[in-house]
Amino acid sequence: MKHNLNIERDRELLLGLTRNDDKALSTIYVENFPAVLRMVLQHKGSEDDAKDLFQEAMIILYEKAQTSEFDLYSKLKTYLYAICRHLWLKKLQSGSWQLSLPEELEEVLPADNHMEDHDKKDEQFRIMEQSMGSMGEPCKTILEDYYIRKLSMADIAEKFGYTNAENAKNQKYKCLMRLKKLFFDKYKL
Amino acid sequence: MNDLNLIRDIERYLEGDMNMQEKAAFEKLCESDPVVNEQVKAHQHITAQLESYGRRLALQEKMDHIHASLDMDMLRDAATPAPARVISFRRRLLTNVAAAACIALVTSLSTIALIQKANRQKTTAQYEDVRRVLNNIQRSQNALINDINNKKRVPANPGTYGGTGFAITDNGYVVTNYHVVAGADSIYIQNTKGEAYKATSVFEDISSDLAILKITDSTFRSQPIPYSVKFQKALRGEKVFTLGYPRDEIVYGEGYISAQTGFNGDSAAYQVSIPVNPGNSGAPLMDAKGDVVGIVTGKQTTADGIAFAVKSAQLKRLLEEMPKEKMGGKWNHKNRLENLTRVEQIKKLEDFVYMVKVYN
After folding, report:
1. Which of A100, A135, A156 is the endpoint of a domain?
2. Which of A68, B72, B274, B328 has its CA at a distance of 20 to 30 angstroms from the CA of residue A50?
3. What DSSP element (H or E) covers B48?
4. Do residues A23 and A78 both lie within one domain?
5. Collapsing DSSP states into helix, strand and coil, what is residue B303?
6. Which of residues 112-171 of A touch B (CB under 8 A)?
7. Are residues A8 and A75 in the same domain?
8. CATH number (domain holding residue A143)
9. pLDDT along chain A (189 residues), means of 10
10. Whose CA is closest to B337, among B329, B346, B328?
11. Which residues of A touch B34 (CB under 8 A)?
């Protein structure tokens, strides 16, 4: 019964995470990071390695949680730990420093199917990051304001000093076209 | 500008800004023109991508914020207990080992102690003093004194312990075993005629288990002693006899010297093959001529017919150690029993062999 209750709590936390509830995020982070830190330190990793690893796992969890088909059937702790272990294993294998694999990491990893998805998403993120990086101002901010921060075109026009929303819109379309070009140059649908 | 119009239319279509006619027209266009259709999909994809990109950036920022608020020092300590754990494990091991060693030590020591004690008990169990337990009832000294005051003769109480003693001088000095009179409140000696006299212990020697008593009663009348004490060693096989009080009547016993040492190789005693019973303690051991060669002290319980007697040389040593002024009487050196038959010897001897009664 206790086990089920714990899963119930984890489900609620996850729900909070999907709704961008800062408190849920913080709770999950603080409760689960120490275990991952311990694992990484035990396998001769650094604290920064642990941070990167854990945050990547959190992103995977977050993105998974956004999709409706995701259902948590193990404890959050187990899930995050498994993902971190998998990521760490990959890092050890692909890294220039070929460490002998710790025995406990050689087990079959349960989170394998989650990872393929994530790799694709991660690739798109990197491309988007690059594309946005190479966009100049004010394009970058206009796009961010409209598509991410969901500001209205009127607010954006005022912020950037356009005479009316229509002008701003035209500017935004131009920017979006450039971004599309940059993005789809590297990423084929 | 065509592209710009197209993108505007796509966005308006996707965001639901178009009215019914426009929407229908646009959908038609999409169906007929695959390029436009593709553009719609690309637009959808890129806006979704932009949104998730933004969410991810925001998440990352939040997480960095949370991470910065973590107490990393504490987490680091908690995450690296490995060396500490080894030390504590060793320490715990050490404690366990120490405890085990202590238990082992205590166990072995106590075992040794128990074995030694058991051995000692075995040894003492093999040896038995042959004093007689006369009465199990302990009487208080007061009762005794009352008794003495009232009757001035033999106390009605038969006494607590009994042994045998014999005269060594004509003025009332009597030899018996130390263990007979040890711890005595008062001592009485009684002859074969039933006359009892009060006596006190004047000299005791624990090592040879001998005690010298002095008859203090004024009614005691001295007699010349018919035997002497022979201080030379008696030889193995020499016939010996004894007179003692294993019961209320004097009892004669006969045997021979079987070894020159006593219990556990005690060189101050003989091993004698002679019937010995409780009450024989302090009885004289005499050779065929009627001279005293030893004093019966005890027997071995684990074997039959093995008794022990202190050598007369010990008695001599004792008498020499004794303060001279205490011994007033004459020491008899002349044996008057030599050529008598045993029956006649005993007849003369028995007057000088006393029952020793001890009250405590």
Report:
1. A100
2. A68
3. helix B34-69
4. yes
5. coil
6. 121, 124-125, 128-129, 132, 143-144, 147-149, 169-170
7. yes
8. 1.10.10
9. 64 81 84 84 81 85 76 76 81 59 46 67 83 80 82 79 79 82 77
10. B346
11. none
